[in-house]
Amino acid sequence: MSRIVVAGAVIDAGRLLLAQRARPEHLAGLWELPGGKVEPGETTAEALRRELDEELGVEVTVGEAIGAPVEVAAGVDLVALRAELVTGTPQPREHLAIAWVDADELAALCARGVVVPADTAWLPDLDALLRGE
Ligand code: 523
Question: Nudix hydrolase domain location, by residue (predicted)?
Fold first, then answer.
């Protein structure tokens, strides 16, 4: 059975929220769209709301999918959904840090190889959103 991991593209005032992973070792220190595994019985939107509450202490509304799903492991697909902050200020409860980046800063991080590899697939889609196209 395939599993889904959901990641949130939280955009506010032309900036994207990134979170720096603390684990596992091969991803530690890399920046990602925050999220996590969809649990049985959850929709992707429900899972994203739960993950962003647990990880960052924020309430979000979830919007449309961004880009195409990425296979992160055999039978594990990663999907990105747009999300908008409703309440709370993101705090890195499970990450090393958080950052708000504009389109140029996101491209620079991807070019430096400090973004989680799967997430770099969405760079064109995120770039267009951040530039308001
Ligand atoms: N990714 C990934 N990008 C990304 C996320 C949220 C996750 O490539 N933006 C990958 C990393 C892991 C897998 O998806 O291989 C599961 O993500 P993880 O560890 O964030 O999921 P959790 O938080 O549900 O995991 P555990 O609670 O540790 O089981």
Answer: 1-123
pLDDT digits (tens, 9 = 90+) for 10-33: 999 999 999 999 999 999 999 999
Indicate the pTM of the whole model: 0.97
Per the CB < 8 A criterion, the answer to whether 44 and 79 are in contact is: yes
- Tens of pLDDT, residues 49-105: 999 999 999 999 999 999 999 999 999 999 999 999 999 999 999 999 999 999 999
Overall number of domains in the chain:
1
CATH number where 70 lies:
3.90.79.10
Return the bridge partners of 84, or none. Answer: 61
Ligand 1: atom nearest CA of 70 is 8
Q: Is the CB of 115 under 6 A from ligand 1?
A: no
Residue nearest to atom 21 of ligand 1 (CA): 36
Question: Residue 99 — left, alpha, or beta (φ > 0 → left; ψ -120 to 50 → alpha)?
Answer: beta
